[in-house]
TrEMBL record:
<feature type="domain" description="Endonuclease/exonuclease/phosphatase">
    <location>
        <begin position="211"/>
        <end position="337"/>
    </location>
</feature>
<dbReference type="Pfam" id="PF03372">
    <property type="entry name" value="Exo_endo_phos"/>
</dbReference>
<keyword id="KW-0255">Endonuclease</keyword>
<dbReference type="InterPro" id="IPR005135">
    <property type="entry name" value="Endo/exonuclease/phosphatase"/>
</dbReference>
<protein>
    <submittedName>
        <fullName>Endonuclease</fullName>
    </submittedName>
</protein>
<feature type="region of interest" description="Disordered">
    <location>
        <begin position="354"/>
        <end position="374"/>
    </location>
</feature>
<keyword id="KW-0540">Nuclease</keyword>
<feature type="region of interest" description="Disordered">
    <location>
        <begin position="114"/>
        <end position="181"/>
    </location>
</feature>
<dbReference type="InterPro" id="IPR036691">
    <property type="entry name" value="Endo/exonu/phosph_ase_sf"/>
</dbReference>
<dbReference type="GO" id="GO:0004519">
    <property type="term" value="F:endonuclease activity"/>
</dbReference>
<keyword id="KW-0732">Signal</keyword>
<feature type="signal peptide">
    <location>
        <begin position="1"/>
        <end position="21"/>
    </location>
</feature>
<feature type="compositionally biased region" description="Low complexity">
    <location>
        <begin position="150"/>
        <end position="181"/>
    </location>
</feature>
<keyword id="KW-0378">Hydrolase</keyword>
Length: 446
């Protein structure tokens, strides 16, 4: 299995740390005063009998014997850190499979195993997932360059089959995920569908689409019309320095995938209805035991029946070649006029196609230039959908939350400073026919 050795080592460390759960003499010390803060945020008292709602999102109510009271704490992994000097991650008997909680550092004492769980939300703080996952592995200097960009111990080439790709990425991905600055409990993943070319060349040369991507800081981009005169490597580095990518070969308007994490296998599947592009796929080594398969598509404008034929071909490929235990995302330019088209019914075999759907600042879902049709989509399988979370766009002095994901239209986005360097006119640039679509996920690393 993927990363089996690393995870066995991690489990052994967890058991060792559990057996050495820190504390003083193990005896309660009633009414010891709480420290004032956990690094800037007050430690919050809570009531296990029903007042757990006082805890913030991502925290749970737990009894701390050292203080003889219950406080709000964040779950963590024993081998992890809590992000500030005032708190430490301590194992708890109730979480012998490797869990623990961030508690005041002076405590570092096992939590009361017999206390009932008073919080429904046990997700830990995902930390900062925006760290550097490693440098690029191939110079994509010209727009014609193609092939997977993955040296990180994978040894896989374009078109490498699924089995080879799984074995090839065994240990490199584990290290890359750790180095990316991701919390050991969960990884935040922002996925973006982007057919954001403008001007007359079906490419990213004018720069409007690049600014839009930079403005929302995606981790994975399912990109269409993947051409840029300054070179694909230059385009990718503007989205994320050192990000990995795959770009299909021999296509007039190629599809591709850009990824924060290593691509351990990649290739393309034929589109049965068009000759100037195919379906580009990449197997991405995200942190944790599962890989994420990303498929970038650009369906035809000709008819709904042609789009359904393309969807049928793609679904058959997915069923034959992608392990059911891995995550799946299909995204890009579907050119669909309505959500009742047959292709959505077909995609329902492998993804969740029902709403609620991403929307802009004004609640509008359409993604074509006129904002009336669902041209662009990010569809994921049920395994990944369960981890979808609100999309939060953080600016220098404000933030905005989109509960179901974001349709990025800079013409209506306010304040525009939240998506800098994007400009308000970028989504209305000449020949900009699509809006970007964004969904966010918090995926467990275990």
């Amino acid at each position: 299995m993927k990363k089996t050795f690393s995870y066995l080592v991690g489990a052994a460390l967890s058991l060792t740390l559990l057996s050495l759960a820190c504390g003083d003499d193990g005896k309660p010390q009633p009414q010891v005063p709480l420290p004032l803060t956990d690094g800037g945020v007050l430690w919050t008292d809570c009531d296990l009998t029903g007042d757990a709602g006082t805890c913030a999102q991502g925290e749970v109510c737990r009894f701390i014997a050292h203080y003889d009271r219950a406080i709000c704490v964040r779950p963590c992994e024993p081998q992890g850190t809590c992000g500030q000097s005032e708190a430490a991650c301590c194992a708890a008997e109730a979480d012998a499979l490797g869990g623990g909680y961030c508690v005041p550092a002076e405590v570092c004492e096992a939590l009361d195993a017999g206390t009932p769980d008073a919080g429904a939300n046990e997700e830990s703080d995902g930390g900062d997932p925006k760290g550097d996952a490693g440098s690029s592995d191939e110079d994509g200097g010209t727009a014609g360059d193609a092939g997977p960009v993955t040296d990180a111990g994978s040894g896989s080439d374009a078109g490498t089959d699924a089995g080879t790709g799984r074995d090839a990425g065994t240990d490199a991905g584990t290290d890359a995920g750790t180095d990316a600055g991701v919390d050991t409990g969960y990884t935040d993943i922002r996925v973006m569908a982007a057919n954001l070319t403008s001007g007359n060349g079906q490419d990213y040369d004018p720069g409007h689409g690049i600014r839009l991507m930079k403005g929302v800081k995606p981790d994975i981009v399912l990109i269409q019309e993947f051409d840029y005169s300054a070179g694909i490597r230059s385009l990718v580095d503007q989205v994320g320095t050192g990000f990995h990518y795959y770009r299909e070969t021999g296509a007039q308007i190629p599809n591709g995938i850009i990824s924060r994490w290593p691509i351990i296998a990649s290739g393309e599947w034929p589109d049965p209805r068009v000759s100037n592009r195919d379906f580009a796929w990449a197997r991405i080594d995200i942190p944790g035991p599962r890989d994420l398969w990303a498929v970038s598509v650009h369906l035809l404008t000709s008819s709904a029946s042609d789009r359904n034929a393309e969807a049928t071909s793609l679904v058959n490929r997915i069923k034959a070649e992608i392990p059911e235990g891995d995550y799946l995302v299909i995204g890009g330019d579907f050119n669909t006029d309505t959500r009742t088209e047959a292709c959505f019914t077909t995609f329902r075999q492998v993804t969740v196609t029902t709403g609620p759907h991403p929307a802009d600042k004004n609640g509008r879902e359409g993604t074509n230039a006129g904002r009336t049709k669902p041209y662009d989509n990010v569809l994921v399988d049920a395994d990944l959908r369960q981890y979808q979370q609100a999309t939060v766009i953080q600016g220098p002095s404000s933030s905005s939350t989109f509960p179901n994901g974001l349709v990025l239209d800079s013409r209506v986005y306010t304040p525009i400073s939240e998506i800098a360097p994007a400009l308000s006119g970028d989504s209305g640039a000449s020949s900009m026919q699509h809006m970007g679509v964004i969904k966010d996920f918090r995926v467990p690393n275990f």
